[in-house]
Amino acid sequence: MKPGKFSVRKLTMTAFFACLSFVLCSFVYFPSMAPFQHFVNVLAAVFVGPYYAFAAALICGLMRMLIGGRTIQAVVGAIFGAFLAGLLYRKTHKLWAALVGEVIGTGFISAMVAYPLMKAFYGLDAQSPFYYIPFYTPSSLMGGCMGCAVLLILKKANVLDRMQTQLEQ
């Protein structure tokens, strides 16, 4: 694929990942956690790369906010992990790198970014910029591990490489 050219297959997969994440997060809910967002982030990072994974996470987060009941954390808690997971996977082509990127991007970077946004938009003063780390990190670790497990199953069945090749055409 030429630089700057959009791939219809990747755009379609991005929409699929955004919708899959939205549906899973809507029906399977844990208080203060969205592990299925992180599950899909790892899948998207491996299949479509950092930019499309970022877009899928952003679309899902915005949809979750629009239906109500979610704060800006629905967006912030997903986008950094998806992007970093995609970047690290692209550099190494190792599944563990996507997991590490998801956990660092969400568990730490997103958690730190969420603090000033929650303070500015919602008036919540958590007294520390580290407040959200204990909420974001376990969720991203659990969801990221589920995503890696699915990818390992696909890899063991010799399907992962074929799927990635078809997306690049």
Explain this structure.
The protein is mainly alpha-helical. It has a single domain (8-168), classed as Orthogonal Bundle (Arp2/3 complex 21 kDa subunit ARPC3). Helices cover 78% and strands 0% of the residues. The chain has 7 helices and no strands. The chain has helices spanning 8-27, 35-48, 50-66, 73-92, 95-122, 133-156, 160-168. α2 (35-48) packs across α6 (133-156) and α3 (50-66) runs antiparallel to α4 (73-92). The longest helix is centred in the middle third of the chain and has 28 residues, at 95-122. The N and C termini lie close together (7 Å).
Key attributes of the depicted protein:
globular; Arp2/3 complex 21 kDa subunit ARPC3; mainly alpha; 169 residues; single chain; 7 helices
